[in-house]
Each structure stands twice: as C-alpha cells, then as structure tokens.
Amino acid sequence: MSIGLKHIPASSLYVSRPTWWLESRFHFSFAEYYNPNRTEFGNLRVVNDDLVQPHSGFGTHPHRDMEIFTYVIDGELTHKDSMGAHETLGRGSVQYMSAGLGVTHSEMNNGDKLLRFLQIWIKPDRKHYKPNYGSRVFGREDRHNKLHHVATSYDNYGNTEKDEGSGIIPIHQDANIFISEIDSDFTQEYLLQRRRQLYLVCIEGSLSVNKIVHMEARDALEVEGDEKDDQPLELTATGNRGAHFIMLEMAKA
C-alpha cells in the first residue's frame, strides 16, 4: 500500500511574459516552453495560471480535439466563440469548451481590474466530437468547506444533457474536477481510488496534504494512487486565510 506525492513548487513553474498584458505560469510544456519531463500528467495536458491586464486579452484563435476548462479566480472573463456563445464570467465561475472538430474563440478582460484564471486542457477519449460550450456560475457557498464536484465523464454523468442550469458538467474523458475553499485548520478528506491519479493546485492560501507535503499559493502536487488499494487524502488549510484549491482526478494513463 503506497501513495506517490510529488510536490511542484510555484517557484519551479515556467513564467511566460510574451506581451505587456499577459503573465502566465505553465505547469506543463506550452507555447515557447518545452520540458521533456513536463509534457502531461495522464490525460491532463495543460494547466496555465494566467494574469491578464485590464482592457486586453486573447483575440480570436482556434482549438480542436481538446476538453478545455477555464476557472475564474479574480476579475471578469468575457468569452465569445464561433458557436454563438458570448458571456462574461466572474470569480468562481467555470467555463467549458469541447473543441472537437474545431472552434474559434476569444477570451478578454474588458474590465478595469486584473483578471486571473486557470486554463485546463484534458485530452478527450477520442477525436472529432461535435464542438460544444457551456458555463456554470458558482458562489462561494457551493465550495465552502466541501469538495464541489464540477465535472465528470459522460459515463458517470449518465446522459448527454448539459449546459442547462448549474449542475455538473459531463466531459469526454474518464476524469473529474473538484473545487474547494476551506477555512483555516479545516480538513477536507478524499479517497483516491486504486489505479487513479490526481493533480492538485493550491490556488490561494496554504495547504497540508497528509501532514507530509506543505503547499503554498500556486504550488501543485502530483498524486499517484496505489495499484491495489484505495488511498485516503487529508487536505488541511494552514495559515490564517484558509485554502482555495482545485483537484483534477483521472484514471492512470
């Protein structure tokens, strides 16, 4: 019985500043950054922590064959795409786009405040799905001192209805996304099933995992489950401001 924990400090992330309005921290190889040891984690291909200055952003650009999530941390993100979607999302909101056969979109900060968001790419279980878009607007109460399950596979979801209301988002991969914001000294428990793995990002605050790894803001943790047994995780917020984190859980690839 064993569980593998690999701590990835924020200081080790590649920082990209390609233009005056953008600062990005890449968890995996992306754009001008290539590290043969950091190309993906299972079916997780991209985790970018982006800061976008006011009245600027990503102009229209294409994507295909990728499940793309955006989690807004601060500020407001305005999305517009070739499928006709056009909306502005604030803190705690989740945006989902299944690029499939191909889609173009823009992501802009039209406000007066700095925008911070995580962009996450998960490889789909096959190529050439019909493109799709959806979003969910969540309040702090949805994730406060609990694991908020925001995405799962279509098989777990049970049907293909989506983008209606504020429920869980089904995706084209055996993966789950959880978000939580816990108070200082609060412990959130999670049982990692055998032959599964997860990628944990401490978005804000600080976090202790199984009293072994201490994480600060923007740190990440790769967790490899056991081959035979389920493994418990205890995530405890340390410090006065608690902890805000996201867990990306998936089958071992």
From TrEMBL:
What residues does Fe cation bind to? H61, H63, H105, E107
Ordered alphabetically, the record's keywords are: Iron, Metal-binding
Q: Which domain of life is it from?
A: Eukaryota
Q: Taking every annotated instance into account, which residue ranges of this chain make up the domain Quercetin 2,3-dioxygenase C-terminal cupin?
A: 163-250
Q: Does the keyword Protease apply?
A: no
Known Pfam families for this protein? Answer: Pirin (PF02678), Pirin_C_2 (PF17954)
Question: Sorted alphabetically, which InterPro entries does this protein's record hold?
Answer: Pirin (IPR012093), Pirin_N_dom (IPR003829), Quercetinase_C (IPR041602), RmlC-like_jellyroll (IPR014710), RmlC_Cupin_sf (IPR011051)
Cofactors that this protein relies on = Fe cation
| MF (Gene Ontology) | metal ion binding
Q: How is the cofactor bound?
A: Binds 1 Fe cation per subunit.
Spell out the Gene3D superfamilies in the cross-references. Answer: Jelly Rolls (2.60.120.10)
Does this entry carry the keyword Glycoprotein? no
- Domain Pirin N-terminal stretches: 19-122
Q: Member of which family? A: Belongs to the pirin family.
Full protein name:
Pirin
